[in-house]
Design goal:
The protein is mainly α. The protein has 10 helices and no strands. The chain is globular and about 55 Å long.
Length: about 200
């Protein structure tokens, strides 16, 4: 076994040999990141934990054919994205609404966190709450590949090469997706950029 082997891949190889404790270690480490990604890809925080459970079930069922061809996290997030897209397609078959409405207009499935207008807090707190709401809305409105690539880039600290594997694009196309996503967010959030409430990294 290579000394440079990804530690999580080493754990997954143990899972392949039937080690349940290794699987539990991986679940404990990756449960919340998977839930976060699923919630943002599907636009549905309510169902994200259930879908994440299906992700780990799929991981366990696939353990016998697991091969170390990339970082474990890249393989895991590819499964998470695929199952999230399956869920979106399933919903689209049972809903008359468009996917755009599912991501942006449906009160039941949107990422938006409504501001608590009844709370009497400092002005700064209210502005921050409004800002977070606008950022979430802007991210939710991005096309799926742009949204996934940007979220992985900003929150999961994946390399461009790893993000490219997950979204199924070339390296240059992935960089373009992330660039376009950032430009779109910057345009949507221009009032906050101008006021200094939100700045590009």
């Amino acid at each position: 076994m290579s000394a440079n082997l990804d530690p999580d891949a080493a754990l997954m190889l143990r899972v392949r040999e039937g080690d349940r404790s290794a699987f539990e270690t991986l679940v404990e480490k990756y449960k919340q990141p998977v839930v976060n990604l699923v919630a943002r890809v599907t636009g549905d925080f309510t169902e994200a934990e259930d879908i994440a459970q299906h992700v780990f079930v799929q991981v366990y069922k696939s353990a016998h054919r697991y091969e170390v061809t990339a970082k474990f996290s890249t393989w895991l997030f590819t499964i998470a994205r695929n199952l999230s897209l399956n869920e979106i397609r399933r919903r689209s078959r049972h809903r008359a609404d468009s996917l755009d409405e599912t991501f942006a207009d449906d009160d039941e499935h949107t990422i938006r966190q409504p501001a608590d207008t009844h709370s009497a807090g400092p002005t700064e707190t209210l502005l921050q709450g409004e800002l977070e709401e606008k950022v979430e809305e802007a991210i939710a409105d991005l096309p799926e590949k742009q949204r996934t690539a940007l979220l992985m880039c900003r929150h999961e600290e994946f390399s461009y090469e790893e993000i490219a594997r997950v979204v199924g694009c070339s390296l240059s196309a992935t960089k373009s997706l992330i660039h376009r996503a950032r430009e779109t967010l910057k345009e949507r959030l221009k009032p906050y950029l101008h006021s200094g409430a939100w700045r590009e990294e």
